[in-house]
């Protein structure tokens, strides 16, 4: 990521992109898609603000997802952030499940981004050319999925339920097992 290296203060994010093999994927995506990509690049200071050991606590799959979570599957200008529909999909998303959503709230010329765990602001435009937009963000976007286990629907009961006599204004149910 020569663009990030030239900017000079994204070494931790560059290491994450390289170790998760996203650097090659980004190049491939830019060359094969007409929609381009947007990268929300946390600065070294943003990584430094994480609780000690946070990044090291993630397994390899989570590190890939974390890197992908900072990449949007289309090139967005700052003006287009005002018009996006929430939730915004990321490269970490399985589009049918929307497990890694971001929400964008624009106020004036500022775009605020929330993962549900972390809120951040686009603080600077690092690079933009119509196929790739790279924006600096003040915080590392941590996916809610890393911290909140998706709830599963309860299994249907095989036990028959019978309506019990009313309790002061309503019915209650009990199992006939």
What does this structure look like?
The chain is an alpha+beta fold. It is built from seven helices and eight strands. The protein has helices spanning 2-7, 11-19, 22-32, 44-48, 54-57, 60-69, 78-81; strands at 37-42, 71-72, 103-107, 110-114, 119-128, 132-137, 161-163, 173-175. It has a six-stranded mixed beta sheet with strand order 2-1-6-5-4-3. It has a two-stranded antiparallel ribbon with strand order 7-8. β4 and β5 (119-128) form a beta hairpin. The protein is globular and about 35 Å long. The N and C termini lie far apart (64 Å). The relative contact order is 0.16.
Residue share in helices? 25-40%
- Judged by helices, strands and strand pairing, the structural class is alpha+beta
Sketch the topology as an H/E string, one letter per element: HHHEHHHEHEEEEEE
The strand count comes to: 8
Report low-confidence residues grouped into runs of 5 or more. Answer: 152-177
Query: In this structure, how is the largest beta sheet organized?
Result: 6 strands, mixed
Oligomeric state = single chain
Q: What is the approximate shape? A: globular
State mean pLDDT (0 to 100 scale).
83
Distance between the termini: 64 Å
Strand content: 15-25%
| Individual helix count | 7
* Radius of gyration, whole Å: 22 Å
Largest sheet: spatial strand order: 2-1-6-5-4-3
Summarize the structure.
The protein has helices at residues 2-7, 11-19, 22-32, 44-48, 54-57, 60-69, 78-81, and strands at 37-42, 71-72, 103-107, 110-114, 119-128, 132-137, 161-163, 173-175. The strands form 2 sheets. The protein has a 6-stranded mixed β-sheet. The longest helix has 11 residues, at 22-32.
